[in-house]
Amino acid sequence: MRGSQDEDFKRSLKILIIEACEKEVSVDEVGDNDPMFGEGTALALDSLDALQISMEIQRVYGVVLADSKKLRRVFTSINALADHLQPE
To answer: What distance in Å separates the CA atoms of residue 75 and residue 80, rounded to the nearest whole number?
Structure first.
């Protein structure tokens, strides 16, 4: 099952992001297709947050996200990240 179709997986990613970046937002406030970065978004992530999330993803899932272009594409939304981590 693709990550974007797995509600439990997406919820676990949201929790991972919220905890890794110490955000005061509930899981339910983070939309699956909403932008993850920038002011005015539920998570309001920045480049330091991206680094923290990358390290946590590597620790938990064993996936290295080092390519900055790929990282930007993967971190556009929860669905994009979920599909990258769980393609099928």
So the answer is: 7
